[in-house]
TrEMBL record:
Residues 208-236, 352-380 have a biased composition (Basic and acidic residues). Residues 197-256, 342-417 are annotated as: Disordered. Transmembrane segments: none annotated. The lineage of its organism: Eukaryota, Metazoa, Chordata, Craniata, Vertebrata. It is found in: Cell surface; Cytoplasmic vesicle, Secretory vesicle, Cortical granule; Endoplasmic reticulum lumen; Sarcoplasmic reticulum lumen. GO terms for biological process: ERAD pathway; protein folding. Residues 381-410 have a biased composition (Acidic residues). One of its GO terms (molecular function) is calcium ion binding. InterPro entries: Calret/calnex, Calret/calnex_CS, Calreticulin, Calreticulin/calnexin_P_dom_sf, ConA-like_dom_sf. GO terms for cellular component: cell surface; cortical granule; endoplasmic reticulum membrane; sarcoplasmic reticulum lumen. This is Calreticulin. It comes from Echeneis naucrates (Live sharksucker). PANTHER family: CALRETICULIN AND CALNEXIN (PTHR11073), CALRETICULIN-3 (PTHR11073:SF3).
């Protein structure tokens, strides 16, 4: 018996999950079935509505269907639950695709990973999460990838600036968090950033601090250059910056009673040398820049478990969009980095080129339509101008005919006389 494609997909997902690699996977391949797996928050009554769509252009009409925001200037809050797990001792990979086909001006395209005790019916912007990851765009200044981790109840933003994609095509975003506390961010299966939690987040106090007991010695001279004590200002140095123009002459018709006392115009003094300063020489007592000594920070304690989240259980879309139309798809949470890469290749990788081709064809068709409309408009304007000229010629002919009629009447009157 041949099983339906959707059933095969679900069976495959269960098989992989049983192996412990995949914790959550969602491709929206069963039509409206997603509505039974995803729950909308009731925290606000006017959250934006979601719809299932592949968008205006796509690589595969069915495979590219995802959750699309459908109302402008709205908050959105939607989440899906899965079997709780801990990432202790294993990599944690969060991956999904985003398509801003609406030429997004301001809005989020990120996901949040929540603990399993989250009340999904009350998800909102202040709900505590473990991880926030994905693109965020607002105007020209904000086009970045958020990577935020919660540590001891506080959200910590990455200190690096990771640029996100801002075009209208689908892009694959991947976050890899390793048990050695290193991380990697990939876009379209290519690494764009990496490092460690301790270096790129301010989760822990600094290892070293300036010694509060240390002070710069009073005799420390950090001047590299000093005035030459033997250099003196020349006696003729001080000259005015401007002087009366020696070539200026009082006009012959100058009336001091009416015009006041005449004064010549001022010009730059060619003898002016500016402010005198002594020459600079190397400071024989120069000791260099004083460096404040550092000591071990007594408040610093290494934590090898910063990466660990004990109760991961919900993936959510909690965001704001000014202009709707973003499509989220191909969600994956796994502890297998290779599996995530292969999943991205099979999904996003398989449809990215056909999607771009369809988009290019649509734009080419739109361009040709615009050109035809412009040409038609110009032709219509030309026809109107020709019609106006014909009317003017007809009016001229009418005036000429009236003149001929008047001449004919004059001749007839002369004949009668």
């Amino acid at each position: 018996m041949k099983l339906p494609a959707v059933t095969l997909v679900l069976i495959a997902s269960i098989a992989v999950t049983a192996d412990g690699a995949v914790r959550f996977q969602e491709q929206f391949l069963d039509g409206d079935g997603w509505k039974s797996r995803w729950l909308e928050s009731k925290h606000k009554s006017d959250y934006g509505q979601w719809k299932l769509s592949a968008g205006k252009f796509y690589g595969d009409a069915e495979a590219d269907k995802g959750l699309q925001t459908s109302q402008d200037a709205r908050f959105y809050a939607l989440s899906a639950r899965f079997e709780p797990f801990s990432n202790e001792g294993k990599p944690l990979v969060v991956q999904f695709t985003v398509k801003h086909e609406q030429k997004i001006d301001c809005g989020g395209g990120y996901v949040k990973i929540f603990p399993s005790d989250l009340d999904q019916s009350d998800v909102h912007g202040e709900s505590q999460y473990y991880i926030m990851f994905g693109p965020d765009i607002c105007g020209y200044s904000t086009k970045k990838v958020h990577v935020i981790f919660n540590y001891k109840g506080q959200n910590h933003l990455i200190k690096k600036d990771i640029k996100c994609k801002d075009d209208e095509l689908t892009h694959l975003y991947t976050l890899i968090l390793n048990p050695d506390q290193s991380y990697e961010v990939k876009i379209d299966n290519e690494k764009v950033e990496s490092g460690t939690l301790e270096d790129d987040w301010d989760m822990l106090p600094p290892k070293k601090i300036k010694d509060p007991e240390a002070k710069k010695p009073s005799d420390w001279d950090d001047r590299a250059k000093i005035d030459d004590p033997s250099d003196t200002k020349p006696e003729d140095w001080d000259q005015p910056e401007t002087i009366p123009d020696p070539d200026a002459k009082k006009p012959d018709d100058w009336d001091e009673d009416m015009d006041g006392e005449w004064e010549p115009a001022m010009i730059t003094n060619p003898e002016y040398k500016g402010e005198w300063k002594p020459k600079q020489i190397d400071n024989p007592d120069y000791k260099g820049n004083w460096v404040h000594p550092e000591i071990d920070n007594p408040e610093y304690t290494h934590d090898a478990t910063m990466y660990k989240f004990d109760n991961i259980g919900v993936l959510g879309l909690d965001l704001w969009q000014v202009k709707s139309g973003t499509i989220f798809d191909n969600f994956l949470i796994t502890d297998d980095v290779k599996e995530a890469e292969e999943f991205g290749t099979k999904t996003w990788g398989a449809t990215k080129e056909p999607e771009k081709k369809m988009k290019d064809e649509q734009e080419d068709m739109d361009r040709k339509l615009r050109e035809e409309e412009e040409k038609s408009k110009k032709d219509s304007e030309g026809d109107e101008e020709d019609g106006e000229e014909d009317n003017e010629e007809a009016e001229d002919d009418g005036e000429n005919n009236e003149e001929v009629d008047e001449d004919t009447e004059d001749v007839q009157q002369k004949d009668e006389l």
